[in-house]
Design a protein that fits this description.
With 265 residues, this protein is an alpha/beta fold. It has one domain: NAD(P)-binding Rossmann-like Domain (Rossmann fold, 3-Layer(aba) Sandwich). Helices cover 44% and strands 14% of the residues. It contains eight helices and seven strands, in the order E-H-E-H-E-H-E-H-E-H-H-E-H-H-E. The chain has helices at 13-25, 37-53, 70-84, 109-140, 167-176, 179-187, 211-219, 231-242, and strands spanning 4-7, 28-33, 60-64, 89-92, 150-154, 193-199, 252-256. A seven-stranded parallel sheet has the order 3-2-1-4-5-6-7, sandwiched between helices. The chain is globular. The termini are far apart. It binds NADP nicotinamide-adenine-dinucleotide phosphate. Residues 8-9, 11-15, 32-36, 39, 66-68, 93-96, 118, 154, 156, 199, 201-202, 204-207 line the site of NADP nicotinamide-adenine-dinucleotide phosphate (NAP).
Length: 265
């Protein structure tokens, strides 16, 4: 029986890269999305094809759910239970940038509330739901879980990097970064390890509108590894964790940022 991963925001961008990497590893995947069903269907079909190309047979099913809504989070977990009857890996990836970048002296509460709801409250309470189910699984069905369940959250270099024209985003990612130490501490006794992956500048729809700005910055040496990151870069890091490469690590932050976080002189 395949292991099962639930990846939020897997229709596009980084989430799609993660879903593909997990399918190649032999995971069945729940491809969550907010509104773009066509993109979600494409990711699911590509997951099945990518696994087949590696000689594996997996299932990938799409599920619409807005992670900022409690009823939708419940729906997502119920869908996973009904469809696959197990959960080995939750990847909290879905997240949004502000619709308009606005100076912190002017930016309004509406955008702040939206980002906190989707980027923080959503993953926090989805993790709570998933963690309770994972505990049930390892407690009552231990023989089915030879590789322990895991939780991975995709945060951002914005957790510690100040961008004064999107303070709401930075604050949401800084808050999200507390999720991993909290759940890692609480879940270790059940053998459930919890990780944060902190991407740098990654080429997706989210960064499309600022492509020229970042092209220039990267060209000028913003990152020691002088290129854009890709969804595949993040997928590979998730796959390493999913392959049990870090059994004695929990609460760990893995920077996948081309070295952006290094202090240099
Ligand atoms: P993206 O290309 O804009 O894709 C966002 C994904 O999230 C889509 O699949 C979207 O679904 C889904 N989504 C949005 N709101 C949702 C909601 N309320 N409920 C469920 N799903 C929702 O973004 P990305 O660049 O791949 O970013 C993915 C994650 O990485 C985010 O958390 C982002 O903050 C983080 N990140 C990105 C970068 C970067 O440079 N791109 C860097 C660091 C961190 P639909 O297709 O249905 O809209």
């Amino acid at each position: 029986m395949n292991r099962v991963a639930l990846v939020t925001g897997a229709s596009r961008g980084i989430g799609r890269g993660i879903a593909l990497a997990l399918a190649k590893l032999g995971f069945d995947v729940v491809v969550n999305y907010a509104g773009n069903a066509a993109a979600a269907r494409q990711t699911a079909a590509d997951c099945v094809a990518a696994a087949r190309a590696d000689g594996r047979k997996v299932r990938a099913e799409i599920c619409q759910a807005d992670i900022s809504q409690a009823a939708d989070r419940r729906k997502l977990v119920d869908f996973t239970k009904q469809t696959f009857a197990r959960l080995d890996l939750l990847v909290n990836n879905a997240g949004v940038a502000p619709n308009v970048r606005a100076d912190i002296l002017e930016a309004g509460e509406e955008s702040f509330d939206r980002l906190i709801a989707i980027n923080v409250k959503g993953p926090y309470f989805l993790t709570q739901l998933a963690a309770k189910w994972m505990i049930e699984q390892v407690t009552h069905q231990a023989s089915r879980f030879t590789s322990p369940p895991k939780i991975i959250t995709i945060s951002s270099i914005s957790a510690y990097t100040a961008s004064t024209n999107r303070g709401d985003y930075c604050v949401s990612k800084a808050a999200l970064s507390m999720l991993t130490p909290l759940f890692a501490s609480r879940l270790a006794e059940f053998g459930i390890n919890v990780y944060e992956i902190r991407p740098g500048v990654i080429a997706t729809d989210m960064t499309g509108p600022v492509k020229e700005k970042y092209d220039k910055l990267i060209g000028e040496g913003l990152t020691p590894i002088q290129r854009w990151g890709t969804p595949e870069d993040i997928g590979r890091a998730v796959a390493a964790i999913a392959s049990d490469a870090f059994p004695f690590s929990t609460g760990e932050v893995i920077n996948v940022d081309g070295g952006f976080h290094l202090r240099r002189l």
